[in-house]
Fold this protein.
Amino acid sequence: MKLRTHLVLTLSLSALLFALWAFLVANHAFQKTDIIIQQVLLGREASFLSGQIEKEGINDAFLNTYAEAHAVRLTLVDHAGNVLYDNEEAPNRMDNHALREEIHSALALGEGKAVRYSKTLQTDMVYVAKDQGNLVVRLAAPISSIGTWRKNFFSTFIPTLIPFLIILLTLCILYVTYLLRPLSQLSKAAAIWGNGKLTHQLLPEGPEEFQILARTMNQEARDLARRMEASENERQRYASILDTMVEGVILVDGKGRLVLSNRAARRFHGDELLSDSTIAQTIRHTVLADVVENSTIKFEDQVFSITTAPIHDGDEVSGAVVTLNDITRIQHLEQVRRDFVANVSHELKTPLTSILGFSDILAGEHLDEEERIHYATIILKGARRMQGIITDLLTLSSLETEGKQFPMEKVEVSDLVDDARESVRFACGQKRMHLVIGDTKGFQVTCARNLMVEALSNLLSNAIRYSPEGTDILVSARKDAKGTMISVTDHGYGISPQDQKRIFERFYRVDKARSRSQGGTGLGLSIVRHVMLIHKGSVKVQSTLGAGSTFTLVIPRELG
Ligand code: ADP
């Protein structure tokens, strides 16, 4: 049942009960008043009749007329209680009245009163008796005989009751509506606040208590909105801290299901990673044993170092935080470092072994001049080889030094080519090769001159090294939107597409024996690549196995 109906019914019922109570009280009061009035009137008449009887004696005709005229019952009783006269009944048929309450009182006190049901007249009667000296005069009349007040009251009360009730009900409804309006506003506002619109404000109206409540609730809503905004800001701050982290962070519940992940974790496909059996097992162990776990997993072509730490909810472990670190690059660098150390050791060990071996022979044996020269030449070759490797390593190391500045200058490409040609002139002549210098004049570039000459020399050395005797090498330059390009083309052995991808790695050689026999260190192209990186340029290769290769240095537009 609605509160409104409930209140209207309660109020109406209370009003009805009140009306009923008022009716009963009024009825009772009227009845009492009727009796008192009746008693007063009957008393006066009894006094009047006592006077008459004293003057005229018992005159039946007079008494009958009087009783009839005043609609009363008149009885005369002697002091022994015998009925001497009664206008309703024959006295000899009536029993002794000495013990009737009103007669008994009148005999004792001079006047007596009583109210009781009269069997003779079959109605409630009011009795008043007065001792006249010789006899008792008793008058009786029904209560209802003079109840005009009551009649008037009922004749007014009953017809006005219905309109009164209608007015009462209307007033109840209006009052309840007035009372409940702020309450319904309040419940509407609560629903709006519940939907998150905390800026909604209640109008303070209705009774004062509701107005206070409305103001308090408005204040509460404003405070709540402020607190929610603060907590949302806080949440966003944490979210942005999480999102700016390099490490992937994933929050999982006790069953290993994803709850939250940061941007890095999403980039690492954290949700897919969670289904990896190693991670799932690590999480399970962390949650069950309440311990921090570390593991490394390989996922597709990436390697992750993973830490799982338990999250506590009271004494219980409610989930875990999984931190993912992409260590692919670190592992790769570690591998490169190991390979590099192994390569350097190996590259130095070979000439060193031969130097040591042949030095031993030179020192110990009795050798003729020819043998001595032969062994000394081998030692010299080994030492030169070591020197070449060490020089190249130092060059590479200097190129890789972070923040190192190389002075830049504007130079003619033809000057760079001339310098480089000088450095390979001897090797070129030895293999009877012909260096064709194409169109290199008129091109100017800004570069670290020595480094660029070194890069060009390395390309020319390789072209000589990996081409058959007597073939031509072409050097040319051109300019386009990207910058200036200097190309070295040979008609040598060429490089397969697979090897083209790796020849710029340190110590990578397609044919180790050929490279070593030709005095290669395996570092030349690595140096070229670094020189071009310093110039923010690049080196490209085009090659066909058995037909020849073209290496191109690309010097970017801003330097070209
Ligand atoms: P290396 O000192 O061995 O020449 P580089 O780094 O200069 O080392 O070259 C790496 C490898 O690339 C060489 O060992 C060789 O196998 C291959 N290479 C380089 N230049 C040429 C070329 N012009 N023609 C064929 N192969 C080449």
Observations:
- The longest helix spans residues 3-56.
- The chain has a mean pLDDT of 90.
- The chain is about 55% helix and 20% strand.
